[in-house]
Design a protein that fits this description.
Blueprint lengths: L1 H8 L6 H10 L6 H10 L38 E10 L5 E9 L5 E7 L4 H15 L6 E4 L3 H4 L1 H9 L3 E4 L9 H15 L7 H17 L11 H9 L1
Parallel strand pairs: 1-4, 4-5
Antiparallel strand pairs: 1-2, 2-3
Length: 237
């Protein structure tokens, strides 16, 4: 059964909307309600990523940058990069901090960095990797929340060195960076909570494999139910 094959291929992450789209790509045209009914009959229930907000440490509102992307129309890649940091609890009850940068246009993950410290060095490492992977582009904006790792002087100096404009969430507006927060939830629900890990190398391996899947295979409703890289290719054609 094709539905079961697609469900297993994506490790139980796809519900009826995405499976219906995948069937259409194979010239199998059925309604979403029918797909949902068949899935229910066969006990196929997709894993759901529940959005939550991680409580972060002190944020310096006084020195925050303005939101430069509010109501901004993004028409292509490398116009706006979004960054954020999430927390990963290790089996020994210590913490790791994962900084990720995505291209806001395609939702593709373009760089990341893992550390046992939440500071400017963490976010600078992710930024340097993004520049190596994507290059520098005129008018590029880097958007983030108002966390201390983005307000850090060293991080801001690096943005200035590369002529990248800094943008931050508006006060008390939690949805300004929703895309990357959604990504973190997907990673944790679809991979981190389902695979064992006990070391930094384990986490790096899990994340690297997930990024390949996320960028090249996992479809996204916000970019027309294709993968981020396929979306970028289509827009570049």
């Amino acid at each position: 059964m094709l539905i079961n094959q697609i469900f297993k291929k994506h490790d139980g992450n796809y519900g009826s909307p995405k499976i219906t789209r995948e069937l259409a790509k194979q010239d199998v045209h059925v309604g979403q309600k029918r797909v949902a009914r068949i899935m229910h009959e066969h006990g196929l229930r997709a894993i759901k990523a529940v959005m939550y907000r991680t409580k972060k440490g002190r944020t310096a509102f006084a020195s925050a940058s303005p939101n430069l992307i509010f109501e901004k129309t993004i028409t292509g890649v490398n116009q706006v990069w979004s960054g954020d940091v999430t927390y990963i609890r290790m089996p020994d009850d210590t913490w790791r901090y994962l900084a990720v940068i995505i291209d806001r246009f395609s939702r593709s993950v373009i760089s990341w960095s893992l550390s046992d410290r939440r500071d400017g060095a963490l976010t600078i490492a992710a930024l340097e990797r993004a520049v190596r992977n994507r290059g520098l582009h005129k008018g590029l904006v880097f958007h983030s929340d108002r966390g201390i790792e983005y307000i850090a002087k060293a991080f801001r100096k690096r943005l200035s060195l590369y002529s990248i404009s800094q943008s931050m969430n508006r006060p008390k507006k939690m949805n300004d960076n929703a895309q990357i927060e959604s990504f973190f939830n997907s990673f944790k629900v679809e991979r981190l909570k389902r695979k064992p890990y006990s070391s930094d190398n384990d986490v790096r391996g899990l994340f690297s494999s997930y990024i390949r899947y996320y960028n090249y295979e996992r479809s996204h409703s916000s970019v027309g139910y294709v993968s981020p890289m396929e979306y970028e290719s289509k827009k570049a054609a």
